Amino acid sequence: MGMCYSSQNYQPDRPDEYTEDKQFPFVPDGPSPLIAGQVEFVKGISGRFRGLKCVRKTILDDTEIDKENLKRRLAQEARILHSARHCHVIPLIHTYFDNRTDQVRFSIVMDRAETSLSECLKPKNFDNKRPKLEWFGCLIAVIRYIHGLGIRHRDIKPTNILIKKGRVLLADFGISQMGLGKTMPTTNLARNASRTKEYCAPEVDQGRTRGRSADIFSLGAVFLEMCIAYYNPEDFQQLESILKTEQNQSYARNIDKVHELIRCMKLRLEDGTWQQNILCLCMEMLNSNRDQRPSAEVLNLGNQLTCKCGNNASLTKADKLIEACKNGSTNLVRRLLDDGADPNTMGAIHLASDRGSVDTVRVLLQAGTYVDSLNATGQTALHCAARNGFVAVIELLLEKKAHVDAKDENEQTALHGAAAHGHLKIVQILLHAGADIEAEDLDGDKAVNFARRRGHDAVLQFLGSSKTGRLANNGII
Question: What predicted TM-score, i.e. pTM, was given to this entire model?
Answer without folding.
Answer: 0.77
